[in-house]
Design goal:
Distance between the termini: 20 Å
Number of helices: 6
Order of helices and strands: HEEHEHEHEHEEEEH
Helix content: 25-40%
Oligomer: single chain
Radius of gyration: 16 Å
Strand content: 15-25%
Strand order of the largest sheet: 7-6-5-3-4-8-9
Shape: globular
Structural class: alpha/beta
C-alpha cells in the first residue's frame, strides 16, 4: 500500500498494518482483543453500513459513545469514509450539548442509548439533523443493513480532518478543535 507523500492517514495506516502485521493485537478491551486484520475488517464493514446510511466524505458526525470497542471502530470507520468524527463529551447535556452539536451542524449523530435522551432533548433545535444512529445493548439501530459494496476508495489525505475535539469550555463555550490525520498519527507515535 502506497503512503501519501505527506504521510499516512489514520485509516490508511490501519489498512497497512492489517497487511503487514495481520495477527498482531491492535485493540484490547474487556470484551476481548482485536488484531489489526480483525479491526480493519470490522472497520470496513461498519464504514460500508455508515455509507449506506448516508454518511459521506466530509460529513461531520458527532459521536457520543462510552469508551468501548464500538467507539474505536466508529471513529476508524468515519476516518475510512473521509468523514470527520466530532467526539462529544458524553457528560454534555442541555446548552453545552446543544452548542457542540450546533457547531458541528450534523446530518447524522452516532449515540449510545445511555446518552440518547440528552440528544433527543436538543434535537428539535438542530435544523440539519436528519438521523440518529443508536447503539443499544451492542446492536446498532438506524444503521443501514450490510451491503456488498465496501467503503469507497480513500479520497482524503493527511491534511484532511480526522476528528474534532472540544475544549473544556472553562473560559466560555467549548470550542471545536479540528485535528488532521497527520496530527493524529504523529501524536500517536
Amino acid at each position: 500500500m502506497a503512503t501519501h507523500p505527506l504521510g499516512p492517514t489514520v485509516d490508511g495506516l490501519l489498512a497497512e498494518r492489517a497487511t503487514t502485521h495481520p495477527d498482531t493485537v491492535f485493540l484490547r478491551f474487556a470484551t476481548g482483543d482485536l488484531t489489526f486484520a480483525d479491526t480493519n475488517d470490522r472497520v470496513d464493514r461498519l464504514a460500508a453500513r455508515l455509507r449506506a446510511t448516508g454518511v459521506e466524505r466530509g460529513d461531520v458526525v458527532p459521536v457520543l459513545l462510552p469508551n468501548s470497542v464500538e467507539f474505536a471502530l466508529t471513529w476508524l470507520a468515519l476516518c475510512r469514509l473521509g468523514a470527520v468524527a466530532c467526539l462529544v463529551n458524553t457528560s454534555f447535556k442541555g446548552p453545552a450539548l446543544h452548542h457542540a452539536l450546533a457547531v458541528a451542524a450534523p446530518v447524522t449523530v452516532v449515540v449510545h442509548d445511555a446518552f440518547a435522551a440528552a440528544v433527543d432533548a436538543v434535537a428539535a433545535d438542530l435544523p440539519t439533523l436528519q438521523r440518529l444512529v443508536r447503539l443499544q445493548d451492542g446492536a446498532w439501530e438506524g444503521l443501514a443493513a450490510a451491503t456488498t459494496d465496501g467503503p469507497p476508495p480513500p479520497s482524503h489525505g493527511p491534511t484532511d480532518p480526522a476528528m474534532i475535539l472540544f475544549t473544556s469550555g472553562t473560559t466560555g463555550p467549548s470550542k471545536g478543535c479540528v485535528l488532521s490525520h497527520r496530527y493524529t498519527v504523529r501524536q500517536a507515535g
